[in-house]
């Protein structure tokens, strides 16, 4: 397994061979860089908002990167990928808004357990409570099941639909209370 180091903080990482050449982010200092073999590490720097270029570190730094970790440095760990999920947060929000009680939005991003729990919640809880929970889920979910950020993770549509579902769940709860009380008094 190849070992790479963060060019900023020298944090070592053991990575799979297919990671070499991909953009990764250091878990310690959060600097993005291209995973390269020792001595070939390139630092990712921004020159303008639209343009990104790669610069080779100075020679003394590449020798430093090959040295063993110093006392007190964290041990090798997995890297945090910078890549985005192929799933969209807007699609997640629309599925949650229209089919949320069926858990379709959770299945879409790969959270099978949460999708099944949403379906079971329909049988255990009242529908307004399930709508409220789905609305909260639309607001807080920004990653898929593999912890990759969803495309458009700062989506306004998801925020608006989440707030609408929360308000709708609260409103439905207060509308249905008289029916629950009436059915309880008849039994």
Summarize the structure.
By secondary structure, the protein is of the alpha+beta class.
3D architecture notes:
There is one protein chain. The chain has helices spanning about 60-65, 90-100, 105-110, 110-125, 125-140, 155-185; strands spanning about 5, 10-15, 25, 30-35, 40-45, 50-55, 80. With about 190 residues, it is α+β, with helices and mostly antiparallel strands. The protein has two domains: about 5-80, no CATH class; about 90-185, no CATH class. It has a five-stranded antiparallel sheet, with no helix packed on it. A two-stranded antiparallel ribbon has the order 1-2. It is elongated and about 75 Å long.
Keywords summarizing the entry:
single chain; 187 residues; alpha+beta; 2 domains; five-stranded antiparallel beta sheet; two-stranded antiparallel ribbon; 6 helices; 7 strands; 44% helix; elongated
| Amino-to-carboxy terminus distance | 67 Å
Strand content: 5-15%
- DSSP E strands, number: 7
Number of domains: 2
Global outline: elongated
What's the tally of helices? 6
């Amino acid at each position: 397994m190849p070992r790479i180091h963060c060019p900023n903080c020298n944090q070592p990482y053991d990575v799979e061979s297919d990671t070499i050449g991909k953009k990764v982010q250091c878990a310690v200092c959060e600097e993005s860089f291209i995973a390269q073999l020792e001595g070939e590490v390139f630092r990712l720097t921004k020159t303008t908002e639209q343009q990104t270029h790669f610069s080779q570190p100075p020679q003394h730094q590449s020798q430093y990167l090959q040295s063993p970790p110093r006392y007190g440095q964290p041990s090798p760990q997995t890297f945090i990928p910078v890549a985005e999920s192929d799933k969209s947060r807007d699609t997640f929000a629309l599925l949650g808004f229209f089919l949320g009680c069926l858990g379709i939005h959770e299945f879409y991003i790969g959270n099978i357990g949460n999708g099944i729990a949403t379906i079971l919640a329909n049988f255990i809880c009242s529908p307004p409570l399930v709508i409220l929970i789905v609305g909260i889920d639309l607001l807080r979910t920004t990653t898929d099941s593999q912890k990759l950020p969803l495309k458009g993770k700062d989506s306004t549509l998801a925020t608006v639909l989440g707030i609408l579902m929360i308000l709708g769940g609260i409103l439905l709860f207060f509308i249905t209370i008289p029916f629950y009380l009436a059915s309880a008094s008849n039994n």
